[in-house]
């Protein structure tokens, strides 16, 4: 009887070990399920541009019909978490909290240090633009100018860095106290003035942290955030919808400006750099990729994991 129980126990243990086998339980015969961001996304723009598929930045036509579109960075993370056979892409700033596996790209790990030393190449800039129609007396316009200046200070850059923006803080950078005298508006009561921020969802965390820190330094202006995608940054500051219900004072983009976004000189700039990371489910043994492979996955739609995962 003891021998029989021992055999049963060994069998159960074997079954449990088989179920926890990591690579063994991943069915490599499955087809890769590719996920993409929506066409207003700056992350999508940067990703497809870098992998040589720029024709897919604003259109799904070049992509396989099996590619699934999601509406935000958070939705992308959720999708890959729930799909063991999925692949997608997110901001490096979101990688740690996502619990997804970030793929090595062209032999280089996706890290802040590798972005700063220019070895990790799947990157994009975080940019901003402001309205270009303020009058000289406009409180909103003066506050926006002061805010933009604040982002270049040691205090502003530190906030950007703390919220995962990638940049360098140098000894030559000014403190806010060194330059605030150039912006008299900061000494006024601005508690009835509303400044509207929006654009890229990837930039939202940085934008909210900067505005929250700066408002008390600038007369406690009212902060409003409405982040709906990079495509709305220019559109709602200087574009066709600049005066609609969703108008913005400052718009953020996690990509470069398009040719049809004729942003006025002196009303835009770079905030910091970010990296884009190709990601898979934590159960997936795949660990390294490149631009050719990713382009093939998104164009063909019938790539199996067995063709990607090395023995």
Key descriptive features of the protein:
32% helix, disordered N terminus, 9-stranded mixed sheet, 11 strands
Global shape:
elongated
Estimated helix fraction: 25-40%
Task: Report mean pLDDT, rounded to a whole number.
Answer: 91
Secondary-structure element order, N to C = HEHEHEHEEHEHHHEHEHEEEH
| Spans where pLDDT lies below 50 across 5 or more residues | 1-23
| Radius of gyration, in angstroms, nearest whole number | 24 Å
Q: Give the number of helices.
A: 11
First-last Cα distance: 43 Å
Q: Supply the helix-strand structural class.
A: alpha/beta
Q: What share of residues are in beta strands?
A: 15-25%
Which sheet architecture does the biggest sheet show?
Answer: 9 strands, mixed
Structure overview:
By secondary structure, the chain is an alpha/beta fold. It is 32% helix and 18% strand. The protein contains eleven helices and eleven strands. The chain has helices spanning 2-19, 42-50, 73-81, 92-98, 112-116, 139-150, 154-162, 176-179, 204-214, 231-235, 291-300; strands spanning 33-37, 68-70, 86-91, 101-102, 104-105, 123-130, 194-199, 222-226, 250-253, 268-280, 288-289. The strands form two sheets. Strands 1, 2, 3, 4, 6, 7, 8, 9 and 10 form a nine-stranded mixed β-sheet that branches. Strands 5-11 form a two-stranded parallel ribbon. The protein is elongated and about 65 Å long. Mean pLDDT is 91; it is low at 1-23.
